[in-house]
Amino acid sequence: MAKRLFLLHLGPDTVDLDEMRESLDLGRIATPDVDPEVLELAGIEITRTHKAAGMSRKEVEGAWAKVCRKAWKAKADVFVSAPGFFDASSEQAALALDGLPGFKVVLVVTSGFAVQPPAAWLSLVKEDRVHVLPDNLGAEQLAAQVARIALIEEEARLDKRLRKISRRRKQVNKRLAA
C-alpha cells in the first residue's frame, strides 16, 4: 500500500487553514480536525518553549500526538501548517517526524528565497521532498501550490510503479519465450 502524504508547512508566518480548506478539498487533501490553538501548542511542545510561553509542560504535552492521530484518521493526504516548527533543532525535528509513521513527509517551506529553509529539517527529509515557496502567497495561492506539490508526488509514485510493472512484464515475456 502506498504511503499517504503528510504535507508539513513550515514558515515563519501562519496561514489560515479555513481559507485554504476548500481549495485543498479540490486536490483531495485533508486537514486534521484540530483547532489552530492545538497546532500552536504542538509547536510549543516540539520546540520545548513552554516556559518562554508562560505555560507548564503538562499544558502542551500531547498536542503533536493529537495532530498526528487526527491526520491518520483523515485517511487521505494531509496538510498541516506548523510555523512553530521552523526554528526546531535537529533533535526536535526528528521527534516531530517520529510521530508520523506510515506517512511520506513532504515539507512546504514559505520562508521565501531570501531566507534559507531550516537546516534541521533538510537533513531529515529527502531533498526532492522539500519545496520552497515565496513568502508572500495568499491562502488560495498557497493551497493551489500545495495541491500542485501533491500531484507531483503522486506522479512520481505512479512512475515508480510503472517502471516496476514494466520490469515484471519483461521477465514474464522472457519466461514465455523460453
From TrEMBL:
This is Shikimate kinase. It comes from the Bacteria. It comes from Nocardioides glacieisoli.
